[in-house]
User: Fold this.
Amino acid sequence: MRNLDLLNKFRRTDTGIRAHYRGIGDRTCGAFTMPSPVDGGELCIVASSGDGWDHVSVSRPNRCPNWPEMDHIKRLFFKDEEAAMQLHVPPSENISVHPFCLHLWRPQKTEIPRPPSWMVGLVKTETA
Assistant:
């Protein structure tokens, strides 16, 4: 994960956050509010790091974040060469405390397995 102090202009420091989290966070965690790159609406973000995982949750007041919004947050909170994932767990393991929240996860000690690029799409090659 990136150093989250780089996002301090978006960091929430209000009394409610201080009380709920016992502080405002640090370079590895915190609560943030920033505008959507899609429509300028509010994105609420909570980032944390621990137990071998980096985690970022992203929510909107009235709808789930869309792909451009999640991609924007991934690029802000994770380093360029870090892969992060959204998980679709079995229903029996689903924990939902907010109806419009999505999550990004990254294991800290292992690489996320990825399919070979040919399974994703054709790679453009230069022609002579």
